[in-house]
Amino acid sequence: MQEMMQALVSKQKEYFYGGHTRGIAFRKRQLQLLKEAVQKRESQIVEALKKDLNKGEFEAYLTEIGFFYSELKDMYKNMDYWASPQKQKAPISHVGSKSYVYKDPYGVALIISPWNYPFQLAMTPLIGAIAAGNTAIVKPSEMTPNTSMVIRDIVTATFPEEYIAVVEGDAEVSKALLDQKLDYIFFTGSKHTGKKVMAKAAERLIPVTLELGGKNPAIVTEDANLKLAAKRIVWGKFLNAGQTCVAPDYVLIHESSRRKFLKLVVQYTKRFFGPEVRGKRSYPRIISEEHVDRLAGLLDKEKILYGGAFDRDSRKVEPTIMMDVQLDDPIMEDEIFGPILPIVSYQYEHEVLDFVRERQNPLALYLFTENKDTEQMIISNLSFGGGCINDTIMHISTPYLPFGGVGESGHGAYHGKDSFDTFTHRKSILKQTTKFDLPIRYNPSQKTLNTLKKMWE
């Protein structure tokens, strides 16, 4: 295994050193080829997502295929400008020189993707890697084998292995890849695995982006539009059966609005998913029986307001609302990553800050309020990857906002220009004139020192 991975990385390094990926016209052509290959296999992608996660066609396009097209379109349109050298100012002490920042690809990039959005989270980082001029190795999740196979077919039919390759397999394959002399690592997945990836990267000082997760709060204040808050939280939470790293993990609702909000949450859950969601043909499955068992273990029958049913054989867990949840309940310990929504009530604004700060920095935070001062208070006093005011999830679907975590929810960001920047080294170059040579740097006298102080102080 090690020898095979080493040979692949060596082959890609040789291709990169040959300068094949440097030209912007070449990169744009590869993105166009990738888009055409995906367009040809749209139906196969939808079918694979159905087999792996039971995603319906609408959800498959909205959250996976359409997302990919949006990212590629923005990258294709803007990458000429993003890739061009940027001229910078020069201080008076550097008279005669010109300063530039060149956009340099790293080399061989490894992209390790997860199972919850198996197409999108493998292919959108690949867009950035290609646009920035790298070669790439994509390691899809073994837990979604059908989607992995389609990704492999798309890539192998479009690109030579020495440029873009797909490597399938389990954790041992990932370990073998991480043991290689890579130039960049882009990982999306759990915090537990992310620590292992970062440790491996540290051995060779390889730069790394980690896209992880966390307990993302949805804060609903007493002045919020409760109807819209309930509607948008239900949609964002139960999308992909809750298996979304930026899904609202729990709701913090002001005590005065609690009863009305609970009624609205149940109302919209019924409207969107129906009373017999386990039998719905398009409702996503939980990824494995073990994950069903884990979710079932978090349920407290005494606190279930709605739902609570599950079926291990079909891997379906009903959208579930839990009320009167306490902060020390098991469901509040770790990220849920499933269709269970705990509701926690609060009385005072300062309690909200304490609730969120008691846990690691979340990947996302959602605030529902009509008060600008409350907005500023939350944004200024809590650390989180990104989020929305009066919405959920939608901040990650625009290519104009960076997406990434902070602290234990990850580091580094991508989407749009940030995808290009993530896979790009900013190389600083100073071009000095040969028409004259100022003697000041060669003369360590008191007069020279006084001149320097006047310039710099």
Strand percent estimate: 15-25%
Q: What is the CA-atom radius of gyration, in angstroms?
A: 25 Å
Level-2 CATH architecture of the largest domain: 3-Layer(aba) Sandwich
User: How far apart are the termini?
Assistant: 59 Å
Number of domains: 2
Q: Structural class, from helix and strand content?
A: alpha/beta
Q: Regarding CATH, which class of the largest domain?
A: Alpha Beta
Biggest sheet layout: 7 strands, mixed
* Count of separate DSSP helical elements: 15
Would you report the number of β strands?
Answer: 18
How is this structure best described in words?
The active site is at residues 211, 245. GO terms for molecular function: aldehyde dehydrogenase (NAD+) activity. This is Aldehyde dehydrogenase. Residues 21-429 form the Aldehyde dehydrogenase domain. By secondary structure, the chain is α/β, with parallel strands linked by helices. It folds into two domains: 2-212 and 410-429, Aldehyde Dehydrogenase, Chain A, domain 1 (3-Layer(aba) Sandwich), CATH 3.40.605.10; 217-397, 3-Layer(aba) Sandwich (Aldehyde Dehydrogenase, Chain A, domain 2), CATH 3.40.309. It is built from 15 helices and 18 strands. It has helices at residues 2-17, 24-40, 42-53, 57-83, 120-131, 145-158, 171-178, 191-204, 226-238, 258-273, 289-298, 349-357, 372-381, 417-422, 446-456, and strands at residues 86-88, 98-105, 108-112, 135-139, 164-166, 184-188, 208-211, 217-220, 250-254, 304-306, 310-311, 316-317, 320-322, 340-346, 364-368, 386-389, 410-411, 424-431. The strands form four sheets. Strands 10-13-14-9-8-15-16 form a seven-stranded mixed beta sheet. Helix 3 (42-53) packs across helix 4, helix 3 (42-53) packs antiparallel against helix 6 and helix 4 (57-83) runs parallel beside helix 5 (120-131).
